[in-house]
């Protein structure tokens, strides 16, 4: 029996169930990634053995490309979620979050890994750089849906969404810097590759998206486009940009985000609204195969070797990596403390961390302990942020009402 066939059956069944309960799902202390990862664990070699997949530390490349595609689709959806004016209004807090908070998060996680794992600075920095970006896939469970729109201010949702979309790609220079410190790259190579990857992806994303939008306008003017195919237009655009960036050795995730912003800017409001609907739907279900596979490939043996030290590291990273920084910057961010607390907690570690950790393995300088610790942090974040999104929004709503009285 084919493992791929079994994976398709599992993903299809999960999708049917999630569609059936989709109206209530975001009101419960669960998320789509959490449901999928639990299913993967139950069906994987550690429990039933139905899905026979190797541990991630043995075959890290199996998830790398899936993570990259999922990130490209997700950041495209983030870029389309709000009008382009939202980026202009919020550029100051976004610049602070990406330019100051993200590198600080990498350093905090690096220090925690050195302290708790007793590893070298170079290896710890590889872990810290990989887990620093805020994941758009996991963050979406807190900021999308009717419940989030009712409970959270629009500005808070916009900032968290746009931050998670932008910093997934912009974490690449930090990862390359970590690789330079660890040895596979020289400092000059890291700087040159960082600049070329980011700037090249920006050009590919913007040029490709503007051309695609103009082509769509022309096709609509001549009535040569049907409604059905148009609904998948930006998903296909994200894959196109990702592929071109891959061929040119550029940062495809950042390219997809730039493409989404450019399409958002040059498209009509009706086009953007239509694309947002399909992008959010695809983003909701595209997570299922990745997280089912991740659940089945969790490195249990390496986790046991880490012991309670690994658990302590995961908890410490979730609590200390981001929350104290955001609370300390509440005033410069223009946020009351309860908004800063919400933004500080809901900065999950997810698909981007898996992508960067497996990319680091390609360079041949990541100890299995670092990869195992990174996956443990990802699973801890999926669990913690999945079960706290609905209660977190309820707490926020209660504080807002108390402030209004």
Largest sheet: none
Oligomer: single chain
Shape: globular
Q: Helix- and strand-based class?
A: mainly alpha
Instruction: Report the strand count.
Output: 0
Helix content: over 70%
Figure out the total of helices: 23
What separation lies between the terminal Cα atoms?
Answer: 62 Å
How large a portion of the residues is in β-strands, by DSSP E? under 5%
- How are helices and strands ordered from N to C? HHHHHHHHHHHHHHHHHHHHHHH
Comma- or semicolon-separated keywords:
23 helices, globular, 80% helix, mainly alpha, 405 residues
Question: What is the topology?
Answer:
Elements: H1 3-20, H2 22-25, H3 32-43, H4 61-81, H5 84-89, H6 91-117, H7 121-130, H8 136-143, H9 146-151, H10 154-170, H11 172-182, H12 187-221, H13 227-230, H14 233-247, H15 252-266, H16 269-296, H17 300-306, H18 308-320, H19 323-328, H20 330-333, H21 337-345, H22 351-362, H23 368-404
Structure, described:
This protein has 405 residues and is mainly alpha-helical. Helix content is 80%, strand content 0%. The chain is built from 23 helices and no strands. The chain has helices at residues 3-20, 22-25, 32-43, 61-81, 84-89, 91-117, 121-130, 136-143, 146-151, 154-170, 172-182, 187-221, 227-230, 233-247, 252-266, 269-296, 300-306, 308-320, 323-328, 330-333, 337-345, 351-362, 368-404. Helix 4 (61-81) runs parallel beside helix 15 (252-266) and helix 8 (136-143) packs parallel to helix 23.
Give me a quick take on this structure.
By secondary structure, the protein is mostly helical. Helix content is 80%, strand content 0%.
């Amino acid at each position: 029996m084919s493992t791929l066939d079994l994976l398709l059956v599992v993903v299809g069944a999960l999708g049917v169930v999630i569609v059936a309960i989709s109206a209530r799902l975001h009101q419960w202390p669960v998320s789509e990634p959490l449901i999928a990862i639990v299913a993967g664990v139950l069906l994987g070699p550690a429990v039933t053995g139905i899905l026979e997949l190797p541990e991630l530390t043995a075959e890290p490349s199996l998830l790398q490309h899936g993570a990259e595609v999922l990130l490209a689709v997700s950041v495209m959806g983030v870029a389309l979620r709000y009008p382009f004016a939202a980026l202009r209004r919020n550029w100051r807090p976004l610049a602070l979050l990406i330019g100051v908070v993200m590198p600080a998060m990498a350093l905090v996680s690096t220090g925690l890994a050195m302290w708790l794992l007793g590893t070298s600075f170079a290896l710890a920095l590889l872990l810290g750089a990989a887990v620093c970006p805020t994941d758009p896939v996991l963050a979406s469970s807190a900021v999308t849906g009717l419940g989030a729109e009712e409970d959270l201010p629009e500005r808070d949702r916009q900032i968290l969404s746009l931050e998670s979309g932008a910093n997934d790609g912009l974490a690449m220079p930090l990862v390359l810097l970590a690789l330079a410190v660890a040895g596979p790259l020289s400092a000059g190579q890291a700087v040159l590759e960082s600049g070329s990857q980011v700037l090249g992806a920006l050009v590919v994303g913007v040029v490709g998206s503007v051309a695609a939008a103009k082509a769509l306008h022309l096709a609509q003017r001549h009535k040569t486009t049907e409604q059905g195919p148009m609904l998948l237009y930006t998903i296909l655009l994200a894959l196109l940009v990702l592929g071109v960036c891959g061929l040119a050795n550029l940062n495809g995730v950042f390219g997809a985000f730039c493409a989404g912003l450019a399409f958002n800017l040059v498209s009509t409001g009706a086009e953007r609204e239509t694309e947002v609907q399909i992008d959010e739907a695809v983003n909701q279900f595209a997570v299922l195969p990745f997280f089912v596979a991740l659940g089945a490939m969790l490195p249990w043996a390496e986790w046991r070797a880490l012991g309670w030290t690994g658990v302590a590291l995961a908890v410490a990273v979730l609590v200390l990596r981001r929350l104290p920084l955001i609370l300390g910057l509440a005033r410069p961010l223009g946020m009351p403390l309860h908004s800063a607390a919400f933004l500080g907690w809901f900065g999950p570690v997810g698909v981007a961390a898996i992508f960067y950790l497996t990319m680091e393995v390609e360079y041949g300088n990541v100890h299995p302990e670092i990869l195992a610790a990174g996956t443990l942090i990802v699973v801890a974040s999926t669990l913690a942020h999945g079960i706290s999104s609905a209660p977190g929004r309820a707490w926020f709503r209660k504080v807002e009402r108390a402030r209004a009285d």
